Amino acid sequence: MILYFIFVLPALIFSFWAQWKVKSAYNKYTKVPNRRGISGLEFAQMILPQIGLGYLKIEGVSGELTDHYDPRDKTLRLSRGVAYGRTVAALAIVAHETGHALQDAKQYAPLKLRGAMVPAVTASSWIAPLLFFAGLFFGITGLAWLGVIAFGASLAFALVTLPVEIDASRRGLNLLKSSHALDKEELKGAKSVLTAAALTYVAALAQVLATMLYYIFLLQRRD
């Protein structure tokens, strides 16, 4: 157990820090009204037809920071705070999710790859530890290595997710600029929110990598 924390604790601390950064940036800029006084929902309704995505549905979703774009049914789902918030943070989040919608419309390869990987990652996330620890417990090295290989699907997913999220934020910031929804100072605030959000995906990648290195270290030590 101590050895596990030696490997994973730095990534875990980084993850907590990243989550704090997101909440901090969101809480700060959710209190800053945007100069045009438009809500996240109004921004979405305004911008989607302008970029050829007027066919998308917009629906509500419960919770906070649960906003997302669903490519399966072409729906932009916005939390209440974002949909009705007339703040810099609300527009930043809508812009980011619209960035994902643009990726989908333009057949952005990493987004399609990530979507295709979901079933395999879902299965491997619980199969991989079972294979690894069963192989370790029964002394079947090949089975344990199979668990490590299966866990590799989670690492690959995290690696693909990072550029997808960064690109969505880039597209979102470009939309905010071209639509003149935010002024120069407000754009800095929007960038702070989206940069903090990107850190959570870096943290997720670090956690997966740390766990995989721990598995490999255990196997090599046993060999």
Which characteristics define this entry?
7 helices
Question: Care to describe what's here?
Answer:
By secondary structure, the chain is mainly alpha-helical. It has one domain. It contains 7 helices and 3 strands; from the N terminus they run H-H-E-E-E-H-H-H-H-H. The protein has a 3-stranded mixed beta sheet. Strand 2 and strand 3 form a beta hairpin. Helix 4 packs across helix 6. It is elongated and about 65 Å long. The mean pLDDT is 94.
Tell me the major beta sheet.
3 strands, mixed
Percent of residues in beta strands = 5-15%
- Number of strand elements: 3
* Mean of residue pLDDT values: 94
Helix-strand makeup class: mainly alpha
Q: What is the chain-wise order of helices and strands?
A: HHEEEHHHHH
**Which descriptor suits the 3D outline?**
elongated
Helix content: over 70%
Low-confidence stretches: none
Structural domain tally:
1
Rg from Cα: 20 Å
How many individual helices?
A: 7
Distance between the termini: 19 Å
